[in-house]
Specification:
The protein is globular and about 50 Å long. The protein has helices at 8-17, 463-466; strands spanning 50-54, 67-74, 77-86, 107-110, 119-128, 133-140, 153-155, 168-170, 179-182, 190-195, 206-211, 218-225, 234-241, 244-251, 253-254, 257-258, 263-265, 271-274, 283-287, 303-306, 318-321, 341-345, 354-359, 372-377, 384-391, 411-415, 424-429, 442-449, 452-461, 478-479. The strands form 8 sheets. Strands 3-2-1-30 form a 4-stranded antiparallel beta sheet, with no helix packed on it. A 4-stranded antiparallel beta sheet has the order 4-5-6-7, with no helix packed on it. Strands 8-9-10-11 form a 4-stranded antiparallel beta sheet, with no helix packed on it. Helices cover 3% and strands 35% of the residues. It is mostly beta strands and 490 residues long. Strand 2 and strand 3 form a beta hairpin.
Length: 490
């Protein structure tokens, strides 16, 4: 089957501007590296860094061209004075900004060439008629001076392909090198695994073709982690057809790569992966499709955790958490969308990963869709509601004010940007208005402490602060390593 070109005027606009909907690109989650390992250190200084996308931004007169920013961690938090703005017009970046290209459609941060520095794979939905190719995966290489455009390359991109769909990183053959699962084939039913290390020309060490579809469906979310504890990461893919959830598939990693025969999993929307009970098996946290309905228009939101075991995730133990669970702040209400975004990291430094939960549809008082974030604590028994915390823009010391349609918590990332052994929360509100600029978007940082997250000394920044395009930019729609995109902006 030939390529399926994405029509941004329908698919992207529906997902970003319409109601809450199924993600237009696979959400990804990975447990690689553990909760406290530096996963996103683009300049090798030991501080984790944050990449943010503004996919709807107009660049060079091109609507929906998009850009990303990279801001570096420091002892005091995110150092916005050290922020790099990158577009497809940045010198060295392949291609050029174009209408509906949506540069930053998704981002995957991993060390792809094995030099010890985190690289950033950025997808764009550009269409190149000369090659009959839809989409690109562009790798921005990490360096001791940070991420820039120079020497960046496209990965994959054979003729007639839909490149970059469902991109997910993991070490699927256990050789210590990062591999990429992604669309890179002219056959719709298949996805390719590009095995690392990649050379600086973008070529993988080898490739594998995996038939992921046997019926007419699509992938809505993915997750990578060592769910069976054999030392090799596995891949979970979750499928939908129109407005119906179609279940999931588990592809076990082996020394030869991903198995080509899958095991059945339950359906899932967004995902996050970590060993929440520290038993040596990666656990899979998911948001549940209510009644198998992928549209989830007024869904309060439910999270289900499938704990890892020698037989895989959820074979021996599961747990369900909602805002009705004891200890969880708030109340399950229509349109909350508890779990629309998920991110794992060890906030309090106790060795157990915690889970940040986006609730972007949460009303704060009478303010609809202002949004909030809930932190669930990990422990020997796994994730529970005990000690859970909630934050929003009306929380004392959090900058800003809760306003209608901000969708605070529309993106999330737990990363130790201060290098103190405790993960900090980066949270986006892509619907944030910046004065008269509608949907400019903004990003917040809340610090991790031994007691959990704190609003004290929290900070926020936005495109105006950075001198970047701001009108309808939807800055903060996705964060590097976040399991999106998919939260709709009104």
């Amino acid at each position: 089957m030939g390529i399926r070109r994405l029509a941004v005027s329908t698919a992207v606009v529906t997902a970003l501007i319409g109601t809450f909907s199924v993600p237009i690109a696979a959400g990804t989650a990975s447990a690689a590296g553990g909760a406290t390992t530096v996963r996103e250190d683009f300049n090798g200084d030991g501080y984790q860094d944050v990449a943010v996308t503004a996919p709807a931004a107009t660049v060079g007169g091109h609507a929906w061209a998009g850009y990303i920013t990279v801001t570096y961690g420091s002892a005091n938090g995110l150092d916005t004075a050290r922020t790099t703005v990158i577009t497809q017009d940045t010198p060295g970046v392949p291609g050029a900004s174009g209408d509906n290209a949506v540069f930053g459609y998704a981002m995957v941060p991993r060390d792809l060439d094995g030099d010890g520095l985190t690289d950033l794979a950025v997808t764009t939905r550009e269409y190149r008629p000369e090659d009959n190719v839809s989409g690109s995966v562009i790798v921005l290489w990490g360096s001791t001076t940070g991420i820039a455009g120079q020497d960046s390359v496209r990965v994959g991109a054979p003729a007639n392909a839909d490149v970059g769909a469902d991109i997910t990183a993991g070490d699927f053959d256990g050789d210590g090198h990062t591999d990429l699962f992604m669309g890179n084939d002219d056959e719709y039913d298949y996805r390719n695994v590009l095995y690392g290390p990649f050379d600086r020309g973008g070529a993988p060490a080898r490739e594998q073709e995996v038939r992921v579809f046997s019926t007419d469906n699509t992938i809505c979310s993915t997750a990578a982690g060592d769910f069976d504890g054999d030392g090799i990461e596995d891949l979970a893919t979750f499928h939908v057809y129109e407005n119906h959830a179609e279940g999931g598939k588990l592809w076990l990693g082996t020394k030869d790569g991903l198995s080509t025969v899958s095991q059945r999993l339950s359906s899932a929307s967004t995902t996050a992966v970590a060993d929440f009970d520290k038993d040596g098996y990666a656990d899979l946290a998911t948001r549940v499709f209510p009644g198998g309905d992928t549209e989830m228009v007024d869904d309060p939101g439910t999270i289900k955790i499938y704990y890892g075991s020698p037989a895989g995730p959820g074979r021996t133990r599961t747990r369900t958490i909602t805002q009705q669970t004891a200890g969880v702040p708030g109340v399950s209400e229509k349109n909350d969308h508890f779990g629309a975004r998920l991110s794992a990291g060890d906030v309090n430094g106790d060795g157990y990963p915690d889970l940040a939960v986006g609730v972007p549809g949460e009303a704060i008082g009478s303010v609809a869709r202002a949004g909030s974030v809930v932190l669930l604590k990990g422990g020997a028994g796994g994730l529970t509601g005990t000690g859970a915390q909630a934050f929003h823009q009306d929380t004392p010391s959090v900058p800003g004010v809760a306003e209608k349609n901000d969708v605070f918590g529309g993106s999330l990332r737990l990363l130790d940007v201060t290098k103190d052994g405790k993960a900090d929360l980066t949270a986006g509100a892509p619907g944030e208005d910046l004065g008269t600029v509608r949907n400019g978007g903004a990003v917040w940082l809340l610090h991790g402490t031994a007691a959990g997250l704190t609003a004290s000394k929290s900070s926020a920044h936005n495109p105006v602060d950075l001198g970047a395009p701001s009108a309808n930019a939807q800055y903060g729609w996705d964060l590097s390593g976040d399991n999106g995109p998919g939260v709709a902006i009104p």
